[in-house]
């Protein structure tokens, strides 16, 4: 018998796949830039392609999820992931590769409404929040998996096949999900579109505030991720502190701090709630971005590495409550649509930030560009503390 806990585990694995695809290009950036001979503009396009696809996938996937049913959406997403991976492996130029990663982004965006819908509908208050905020832990595990493969290939001098092996490896969890998809409940609801959803939403002050928080702070956290977090490998390599293997070990160690950050956040929820967890996360991210930018500007690169570790904690904690908050206040009828819209609103500026960041760095320098990102964190501090109303263990839905 397939238990609810098994459903939750599959959803976490599905988030792992999503995050693997999101972070594939950022983690492989230096190798892809060399292989495809990409300039600053193409580096941004290449890195942002998956996020662009995810934005479209989010807005359409929410509707598909509520219309076709959760299980059918789950199947479609995993098939597209595999097709996109195969297309990436056989890409002959930077344009073909970018298009294939854009296609991979569609199921990344489409899967999020599905995953959070299953989590909300398969667990009780308290447990829903815990599993909903485990998203950053799955992201960390995906990042560490990718970087472990990269480091292993560097050590055995097979750097030419690194990016292809990483993309090929992403198919393995997809196959596991496809084998088990038929055991999921095919939850289907009648979707009435975004206009009715927003009308319903505005009728309740608490739910409207939770949604505004999810939208605005989703933008803030996504901008942090798509610039500083995405480009940590690029930044570490560019600072020339170590050789290529030493730099990859440092990158692996920095991201490894995401494991305790991803575990501690959900465990603190009964004590802090979603509101304070998010607020504290933005405060920590703000301090670490200012510190990172100043240390880069002043050439104190070893201090930069310390601030990068601090940033990992802050970004994890400010990101964890975002989609969970939206999912909690959404009814089954509109849940996929609501989560898809929130994810879309976060992904669009994230996509634009990725496109712009390498060019901005080339114009104003890495240190100032890093400090510029702190504006997003400051906005997150204000919105999470002034707009968001605590909804931990919330049960009523509209």
Tell me briefly what this model is.
This is Transporter. One of its GO terms (cellular component) is plasma membrane. Helix content is 82%, strand content 0%.
Find the CATH superfamily.
Answer: MFS general substrate transporter like domains
Largest beta-sheet details: none
Calculate Rg over CA atoms. Answer: 20 Å
Number of helices: 17
Named at the architecture level, the CATH assignment is Up-down Bundle
Molecular shape? globular
How would you characterize this protein structure?
The chain is mainly alpha-helical and 398 residues long. It has a single domain (4-386), classed as MFS general substrate transporter like domains (Growth Hormone, Chain: A), CATH 1.20.1250.20. The chain is 82% helix and 0% strand. It is built from 17 helices and no strands. The protein has helices at 4-36, 40-68, 70-89, 94-121, 127-132, 135-155, 162-169, 171-180, 193-202, 205-229, 232-238, 244-256, 258-297, 301-319, 321-328, 335-364, 366-386. α10 runs antiparallel to α14 (301-319), α10 (205-229) packs antiparallel against α17 and α16 (335-364) packs antiparallel against α17. The longest helix is centred in the last third of the chain and has 40 residues, at 258-297. It is globular, with a radius of gyration of 20 Å. The mean pLDDT is 88. It is a multi-pass membrane protein. Keywords: Membrane, Transmembrane, Transmembrane helix. Residues 7-392 form the Major facilitator superfamily (MFS) profile domain.
Supply the key terms.
mainly alpha, single chain, 0% strand, Growth Hormone, Chain: A
